[in-house]
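Format notes (please read before filing issues)

Several people have asked whether sequences and structure tokens are stored in separate files. They are not. Every record keeps both together, in the order shown below: the sequence lines, then the token lines. Line labels are part of the format and must not be stripped during preprocessing.
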Amino acid sequence: MNSKKPKTGIKPLTKSFWELSRPRQEAFLKNLYDLSPENKSLFRLRLGNGESAVFEALKKEIQKETVDRLPRYRKIRLVKINTILRNANKYALPMAQQIKLKKEVWVGMCTFIRKKDYLPDRYEIACARHLGEYLKMITDHILEKSEVEDILKKEKDYLSKIIETGIYLPHIEDVYCQYFTRRLDFINHPFT
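Then the structure lines:
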């Protein structure tokens, strides 16, 4: 029994696409473009030099899901925020832009948490997770040591001000202790 399996993968699909007439190819691409907002962003990135436009759109979506929800809503849609960050990763945005988006997320979530009372712990846990990921991205992906130290110092000062307000944020304080007490001691006194 030598039955051939149908070919899988992109190659047969690519061949079928190129066999279509030019108007049918254009109609197919238009259907893909109209299918979802993610596809529109992907088309802008890959075909239209729209990297900054896509970055700004993602940043605006993050603000809409965090800080802009303050006056009207009591909830942050964590799933939506995670989807936005996943899309940034899928679009293969430069690491510098992904770091800025991650900062936008944790700062926006922290602002939301500080302005509202009696929120579920999952918001602070998610904020602390994004803060930790942001700090890890900075230490892992920024090559210039002085730039890393400057950013970490600014973040340490910002977090210190938040902690000094007296709002009980244990998960954020844990991330603060994890990244700043140990790392600054190491920077000031390496190998002692």
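For reference, the curators noted about this record: Residues 183-192 have pLDDT under 50 and may be disordered. The CA atoms of residues 12 and 31 lie 20 Å apart.
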